[in-house]
Amino acid sequence: xxxxxxxxxxxxxxxxxxxxxxxGSDRMTRKKSVALWPALLIVAIVIPWIGWNTxxxxxxxxxTDPVAPSSGFSGxxxxxxxxxxxxxxxxxxxxxxxxxxxxxxxxxxxxDGISDIVAxxxxxxxxxxxxxxxxxxxxxxxxxxxxxxxxxxVTVVDLNQDGSLDxxxxxxxxxxxxxxxxxxxxxxxxxGDTFVRHVxxxxxxxxxxxxxxxxxxDGxxxxxxxVFGYARGExxxxxxxxxxxxxxxxxxxxxxxxxxxxxxxxxDGxxxxxxxxxxxxxxxxxxENLGSGRFAARLLFRTMNYDLGSAGLVKCDxxxxxxxxxxxxxxxxxxxxxAYPQPYHxxxxxxxxxxxxxxxxxxxxxxxTYAAAPGDLDADGDVDxxxxxxxxxxERPENPSIVWLENDGQQNFQTWQIAGxxxxxxxxxxxxLNNDNRDDIVAGGLHLGSPFERLGRITAWLSSADxxxxxxEHHQK
Length: 477
Fold this sequence. Notes:
Elements: H1 5-22, H2 24-54, E1 86-91, E2 101-107, E3 116-121, E4 126-130, E5 142-145, E6 151-157, E7 166-171, E8 183-191, E9 194-204, E10 207-213, E11 222-227, E12 234-242, E13 245-253, E14 262-263, E15 272-277, E16 282-291, E17 294-303, E18 314-316, E19 325-330, E20 346-354, E21 357-365, E22 369-375, E23 384-389, E24 402-407, E25 413-419, E26 425-431, E27 440-445, E28 458-463
Antiparallel strand pairs: 1-28, 2-3, 3-4, 4-5, 6-7, 7-8, 8-9, 10-11, 11-12, 12-13, 14-15, 15-16, 16-17, 18-19, 19-20, 20-21, 22-23, 23-24, 24-25, 26-27, 27-28
């Protein structure tokens, strides 16, 4: 039978008193322990303080060579102003709620020879279309597909190969951390002027990305899926069975799967998958296509800096050598309530060396980097890069939210500042919006935290060849 609580406490106190009377050495031990407490308290305070103030001066502590930052912590990042003439255009009309745009794409969605913008909007829980018609005139925004809880990414593709562009949407199901089965993959099939909804996958955790390609070599388009989840995630591929049916196949497990770019990374004639994990570990993997729907995981990169903040993975041939490289923007620290730029934030280029070897290069330091897009901004024939920041130091108005990295043709990059308004940018795309043979920029704002100022929803920066000033000529080869 249990004793009353008061009796139990009394027995414990009594036993403690009797033990204290037994020897004098026990009393001395307790006195020494009490005397050590102030010293331990000082150590607990001083060591973290020393670490905070000195470790950032050793950037390799945070990221493995050769991708460590080249300079110490500065508490935010600013650069020289870009001399490329760019005209800023705010799209999508006025808004009352702070915008939550998670993805933007530049595409000729209606096939009229003029590029449009397709975007994911979490406020509207929809995929929206910014149509440009005629050139230079933006029509009222159209909703292509709605009732999507926290859409993360839209892929524009003719999935059923009927000659019209569809949308395939990666649905998180919850913008905030969640390990529940709340995600889905939704196909918006274009039928005339409407989009018919098909839920391809819904028994899954939060989905961050879906890309389409013929992964099994049978002539139709399959899907690679990045299930971000939270503490649990995975990479899947969905086999196209025809007639709108898909079969799910597991490839690799890991929390925080971000993107799944598809390309023939090893040059053997089939489509492979690249992906990055960003939760428990910071890793990049190549998923080699072995044929017959089988994939072999190859570790491309791993760092002991678990706070690196991998925020995306972008394929491009940055050095124009004929193979496909990878860009890794680093700066996602949204798990911190008061996120702040860190010395290891920026962009890494993983140069494809062949045989599944990728050499890492740091091409930019930029606080709070959240997305990257390749494009030829200065029309000199090489590949430049645009970066956007979610969490630069916004208390300093001189700090930018968007920059571009000028490529000198030898993959040496100079960072130029484009704008600091709007802030909290998390997605960016490059493409020719005004048909001047020069890439333009579109970015989207995700305003989750303070400061709630300099807000923007979908913003374009348009370049024009006939506006190039003489002092920009040195940019051009």
